[in-house]
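pasting for ref
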Amino acid sequence: QVQLVESGGGLVQAGGSLRLSCAASGIIFRFYAMGWYRQAPGKQRELVADITSGENTKYADSVKGRFTISRDNAKSTVYLQMSSLKPEDTAVYYCNAGLSGSDKLYWGQGTQVTVSS
């Protein structure tokens, strides 16, 4: 059974920082690309950042320079370090795992991030 368990969400003031964690089980973690997505009410789910098994990273333009994705294969955990947070970053953040060449994706339950003005 595959599980992606997220933690670290919460309420933070604009300009503050927060670190999200996603612990995976039931997969051979080091083989998987990992990603963070977010969805705000009335908006489509969007890719925030992803990291390949080779630790190549990509970021949405809206977060580039403020967010950092990283992974710890020994802990089967992917992180999203968020800095200089803005109210428009408020969303439910989801962890995602997938293999290159496969159409099968796994998703976490989501964690709420709220940035106050």
